[in-house]
Amino acid sequence: MTIEATWRADSGSSVCNLGNGTATWQSDLDAPMGNPAIPNPHDLLDSALAACTTLTLQIYAKRKGYALESVRVAVKHEETPGAYKMIRTVEIQGDLAPNVREDLLRVANKCPVHKSLSAQITIETTLEG
């Protein structure tokens, strides 16, 4: 699946529209130049890890029959020159034994986005037009 981002100067804003062929969403710059109600690209990156972790735990707990009642994942980041550190906090609710909680933490660290972000990432760019 390909994600496309588009922007036009005549739109009168810095908002870019994103889509994957079936869903659409937006991103903008940080305030004050951008719209604070629309996530910036770093928020989108952090939200991908949070969403993937939540969905992975939900599916895994259901498959294993764990009494997982809710999941809350918070992700923030710290940037330094040459480094981007994501700090993830996972909160789970339910009647869960300590070994089940440990199993869920293990699975959280194996969500597909976590694996991708932990791998060596390369970016190949071409310019058209």
UniProtKB/TrEMBL annotation:
Any matching Pfam family: OsmC
SUPFAM superfamilies referenced in this protein's UniProt entry, alphabetically: OsmC-like
Ranges annotated as spanning the membrane: none
PANTHER family the record matches: OSMC-LIKE PROTEIN (PTHR39624:SF2), PROTEIN INVOLVED IN RIMO-MEDIATED BETA-METHYLTHIOLATION OF RIBOSOMAL PROTEIN S12 YCAO (PTHR39624)
UniProt-recorded name of the protein: Putative redox protein
Lineage of origin: Bacteria, Pseudomonadati, Pseudomonadota, Betaproteobacteria, Burkholderiales
